[in-house]
Amino acid sequence: MQHLQTVPGTKPSRGRPPGAPVACEILPDRRRGRGAQTNVSGRYEREERIAFDDGWETIEDLPPIRTEVQIEKAKRIITRNASPDISFDRSINPYRGCEHGCTYCFARPTHANMGLSPGLDFETRLFAKPDAAALLEKELAEPGYVPRTIAIGTNTDPYQPIEREHRIMRQVLEVLSRTNHPVGIVTKSALVARDIDILAPMAERGLARVALSVTTLDRKLARSMEPRAATPTKRLETIRKLSEAGIPVTIMTAPIVPALTDMEIERLLEAGAAAGARQAGYVLLRLPLEVSPIFQEWLMANHPDRYRHVLSVMRSMRGGKDYDSNWGTRMRGTGPYAWQIGRRFELAAKRLGLNAERQPLRTDLFKPPVPIGGQLSLI
Predict the structure, then answer these.
(1) What is the 3-state secondary structure (H, E, C) of the chain?
(2) pLDDT tens-place string over residues 19-54
(3) Cis peptide before 255 (omega within 30 of 0)
(4) Fewer C-beta neighbours within 10 Å, C or N terminus of the chain?
């Protein structure tokens, strides 16, 4: 069912990809500092909101969209996966949604599970899990728990701006440090440096590593594509701070956007290595479900001259589709262009001495917390 409605403060999207559903483009003054152009309904909704010109040519002056944070009472905090093409089998997400607003974020479709839009809702209507640390301690104390590296930052960024106030990530790290549990972090935020006092001692025990995602060195492009993430310069400075503190750091050139950022692969790795990174990784742009039209709208609005070329190259690596979810190829793509990206990355990383060795994080130091109502060990 489609519900036709004139929405104040919106207009039909001019950057709408050809053939895509009509979407409500939020006017620039209302979405300043946000990534998505629209707030299309999630795929599970029975009604779709569509803007149209009713001929009156009047638009209400509405205030800018502000970030709202709701409290989520989670029952468990460790999420498990059995994906054969990723290096971890468990993760933690302290937040739902991400204020960084990256237009390409593959996690955007998860907001549809909450009855919200993967568009602007994903960036502005966030959920915090303040009980995360307590839940983690409880789960680590469960009989038979076997420690393996917990990945944090795999879905939404644990150091997004609202972490400054809520400090959930820091509380989680305090539990992991106290129990000697290994952790791997992925972020675009300089805020991770705040927790060096926890991460450095953990790293010294072989329990922690951090990956900084640096998509481009072009500050203007980064501001447009990742509006509330740290600038490229700040991310490189953070790599340096972490490295100098003895924390193993990886530079992630992720995602690589063909015909837009792929020409920067070598320069990104050089900058990361110069800042102290000793590992490197990359992921090809992924456009599942609602992410594809959201990214295409952004691309058409900001780089109309490259729109067709970017999508053409992208689809050449995805079997002619916007996205291929098959394990083993979803992160890297297929075909000659994908092969070229992989070889360029490997050669540059080898030349710079990146990925020369990788020490697995330790699990033998793990000390389960005493469960609530439990007894202390006699030994």
Answers:
(1) CCEECCCCCEEECCCCCCCCCCCEEECCCCCCCCCCCECCCCCCCCCCEECCCCCCCCCCCCCCCCCEEEECCCCCCEEECCCCCCCCCEEECCEECCCCCCCCCCCHHHHHHHCCCCCHHHHHEEEECCCHHHHHHHHHCCCCCCCCCEEECCCCCCCCCCHHHHCHHHHHHHHHHHCCCCEEEEECCHHHHHHHHHHHHHHHCCCEEEEEECCCCCHHHHHHHCCCCCCHHHHHHHHHHHHHCCCCEEEEEEEECCCCCHHHHHHHHHHHHHHCCCEEEEEECCCCCCHHHHHHHHHHHHCCCCHHHHHHHHHHCCCCCCCCCCCCCCCCCCCHHHHHHHHHHHHHHHHCCCCCCCCCCCCCCCCCCCCCCCCCCCC
(2) 444 455 677 888 889 999 999 888 888 877 665 556
(3) yes
(4) C
CB distance 79 to 93 below 8 Å: yes
Q: Which domains does the chain have, with CATH numbers?
A: 68-351 (3.80.30.30)
Phi-psi map region of 319: left, alpha, beta (phi>0 left; psi -120 to 50 alpha): left
The pLDDT value given to residue 188: 98
Would the CA dihedral through 33, 34, 38, 41 be positive or negative? negative
> How many C-beta neighbours within 10 Å does residue 38 have?
26
Residue 85 tokens read as: 């093409």
CA distance 116 to 121: 6
Q: Does residue 191 carry a pLDDT above 90?
A: yes
Q: What is the rounded CA–CA span in Å between residue 64 and residue 204?
A: 45
